Model the fold of this input.
Amino acid sequence: GMENHFNIVIVYALMHLLLVQGARQGQDIKCGACRALVDEMEWAISQIDPKKMIQTGSFRINPDGSQSVREVPFSRSESHLLELMEEVCEKMNDYGERVDPATNRKTYVRHTSRDGTAMDLSDVAFDSRVSSSLKFACETIVEQHEDELIEFFEGR
Done:
């Protein structure tokens, strides 16, 4: 009767809540991995001398005697970006998870600074579950969006 119907409503409400929570956590991880990926790539690019150039294009001689070779900065060349993208997801091991107590949303932060200065990590959790989820999300982004990522970093 009535009681049974009420229980079903409660179960559905809980399932919905769990699904929404799960989807939100999935979003937080994807978003966090994407932000970390861009940040790590930009940092790695910034470590290369911007004056270092690489020749790209075709070395074939065109009918008019010219060559379509151009010089581009090595740091943002396709070959260098591909090389960085192969290693970038390993950097997810340097990240921990910070949960906002008010919204329960998660963000991901480096738990080691690049220059060795101490960081406030009082509210950051690091465990292998966090880094492996981030790493998996990062690898998925790199696999699915390789071309867009290269275009994005070449043009910055």
User: Anything to note?
Assistant: The radius of gyration is 23 Å. The CA atoms of residues 97 and 108 lie 5 Å apart.
